[in-house]
Amino acid sequence: VQLVESGGGLVQPGGSLRLSCVGSGFTFSDYVMRWYRQPPGKGRELVAGISNTGDITNYPDSVKGRFTISRDTAKNTVNLQMNSLKPEDTAVYYCFAINIRTGRSAWGQGTQVTVSS
Questions:
Q1: How far is residue 84's CA from residue 66's CA, in Å, rounded to a whole number?
Q2: Tens of pLDDT along 85-112?
């Protein structure tokens, strides 16, 4: 299982970014996909999740209404659209996959998102 994130960068407060995660080496439709983030000096936290079928999503209150997770099974890709970004969204963002039957899981290498003027 390999996950590769892209799309991070520097953005001003109020701006938008779209993160992508491409998976390989596994059957994408058997995996729940999530995005986590780790702010500087803090622990890793969940920011979005999507079911293996793509019909169920979940978000913490801190990003609800601003972030949208989606998946394209044909392209083995999960995306995170982030709007109305705030300085507190600054973090390394990680893609995570977990098999719905076996619990086998994997992390991507992370991509840095910095929200600053």
A1: 6
A2: 999 999 999 999 999 999 999 999 999 9
Closest CA to 80 of 61, 97, 66: 66
- Cα torsion 37, 52, 30, 17 to 10°: value is -40
Rg (CA), the chain: 13
**Do 96 and 34 contact (CB within 8 A), yes or no?**
yes
Q: Which helix (H) or strand (E) holds 27?
A: none
CB 63 within 8 A of CB 45: no
Report which of 9, 10, 6, 16 is spatially closest to residue 85, judged by C-alpha positions: 16
